[in-house]
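Forwarding these from the shared drive since the link keeps breaking.
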Amino acid sequence: MKDRILLVDDEPMARYGMRRALGDDSYHLAEAENGHEARFKIESWKPDLVLCDIRMPEMDGLELLRAVGGEGGPVFIMITAHGTERIAVEAMKAGAFDYLVKPYELDELRLTVENALEKLHLQRENLQLRRQLQATRQADLIGESDAIQRVRSLIDKVSQTDVTVLLTGESGTGKELAAGQIHRSSPRHKGPFVTMNCAAIPKDLVESELFGHEKGSFTGALAQRQGKFERADGGTLFLDEIADMSLETQAKILRVLEDKQITRLGGKQVIRTDVRLISATNKDLCAEIDQGRFRSDLYYRIKVVEIHLPPLRERPGDILLLAHHFLQRCVQRHNLPPRRFDASAILLLQRSSWPGNVRQLQNLIEQAVVLAEHECISAAQLPDELHAEAAGAMPVDRLGERSFAEMKNAAMENYERDLIRRALQESKGNVSAAARLLQMKRQFLQQKMQTLNMNAADFRI
């Protein structure tokens, strides 16, 4: 895609010179004649680079840089008159990439712009790689239950293909997590992973978000904008809560999936797009079709493979694994002292019904960890809502056939199994290396593996 460059100067001839130097169809160019107009265009048009004169009335270039520059903002190249280089150096200290002194050669301008954009592209690529690495470390589907194992198996299979996938399940079960895992494991992993919650976008703006729009295509369209399909080109687009789309928008999505091309709202140019679509919903789409609220042809198009994410109440053996995972992650993120659950907290966590599923568990654990006054977190420190859910799910005097000790031992066994499995995967089945990762003696690890019926050979490549 072409980079966007904003030319900012109060002199029309100066802007004409910059446009002449860059206007070879290599870039998308826009102009602003003062700092206030430039600030508005930066916020609405999102340029990659700004060529900005320092001396301007009202808001000068240095003020503009300080207002909108920095991390996440565009790269600035400052332009100054001969004899005022000191101010340009001050601008570089404030975050500008470089500066040019008038009168400058057109080749000098082109080269400076190319160098700035090359640096920007490298920064963005490194940021994307760091985010992918962090996501890989933190966003795995946690659990050892049969239900979650089936989900992992399906993800492994569909990841190596380009088929459309429909993720179903209650809110909070991890559908976006699964979509991200499919993308990261697929041949498209180097491309973008773009998400959109269809229920969170006003209905009159959904098509603009999906397909983009041209300037002036509707009231408030002050600049050209790319849509989600265009941004996801070469990667994956995840549409969450797809059942909340209007029938008209559903028809347009179906056409995009069939033709692999879009047209921005208010535009005429046909734009080719190579996107893998993953959809998700917490509704029964067959029932929605019967009620006339969802198109059957789109349903069969997005559901080449369906993966159902089980609710947390159907995988109780994973609750403690998830709770410990969220506890450790929260402690690290907030730089807190070590925390652990006592027996009463473990029992309460396992007896709860979890209507909000994994998302509810994650938020509750973070709340408990942040507010804890001591290393040990007890049931008394967990929110009242959890006590009410646990009482409704299984009263204290009716724990059923399984005793507390049995429930605790089963949960700890699952937790230990998960830790050992991860260590063996990372060490490719080398028991000595896995023991070092787990900070335990090799003989003790071998005994644990024998007790849990785990074989190191299963993890060797």
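-- next protein --
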Amino acid sequence: MDLYIKDAAKLLQTTTRAIRFYEEKGLIYPQKAVDNNYRFFTDQDLLRLHTILALREIGIPVQEIKQLLSEEGMNTRKYLDIQRAALFEKWLEIRDMLGTIDGMVGRTEYSDFSMKDIHKLAQHLKNLKEQRKGWVDKWDFDSWADNFDSHIKQEGHGFNVHQGYDEALAKVVQLVERKENALVVDIGVGTGNLGAKFLQNEGSRVIGVDQSDEMLLECKRAHPEIDTRKGHFLALPLLDEQADAIVSSYALHHLPDKEKLLALEEMTRVLKAGGQICIADLMFVDKSHRKEVMDELQAAGNTEAIAAIEDEYYADCSVLIDWLLGHGYSVDSWQLNDILGIIYAKTEGERY
């Protein structure tokens, strides 16, 4: 049933002035009665307005909200996904702040803080916030969704980044221990090629996380059993210690190197004690291996391959392994070909 502005404000526990403000800013477009020009709000208008109010409640600027809601024909699930993703990002920001303050309190037991120390901590928080929110999809994954599965099967001309794709996914499934009623999280789920393989476990749940709305739609169409959620490596839409296993394929290399370790930290946050991480991705064994491969490509005149590698952020496997070992994991790794590797890690009891 359509509501006039006064009734809409009462229902959503806001003011008519606030609603008019969001209309002036182009966030909502209520229809107006022909005879008296009164605004009236449909159920879809109310859902949109509820989302706007929820995002404003956690401090998201109006202009950013306008961008988040720019897609036409949004459905209920999309509005709720946006709210959930925004709430998790804000929660992580507050968590970072609390952790920093706890560290400051602990250090004041031994010495007073100087303004220089406070500035360093403030800069640290700012950097964390920028990293979590600052990732940009320069590859336009939404446009890949319709033909992604056929794209990854193409051999290419001088360079095929998906060589060994099926072998890699099979290896991940083989490595991850199967448990009843397990929760498996697939980060960068895409169209669900990897995550769907874990649906065969009895009672298992799979959460597929992706920043691309179109990829999530394609995943849901192909595998309706997967719980698709908008999010990314640096802000996973899960509470602490929920996942039994985290998997990812061909996604981590879209993060700059400085953010990969933050991604591992975020995976560790949502992983249960004794949980597993398995990543199949474009990576080199270490810096010397990267140089060796790039030198060979240069000598062969394969500029296509060099350009493809330099366009993305192929990982240094040794750096990821060192981080995991230092945070309580046992680790194994395999290099399937010159550019494709797998890391399997499992927590050993308590983590730190």
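Residues 76-108 form the longest helix (33 residues). The chain has a mean pLDDT of 86.

- D.
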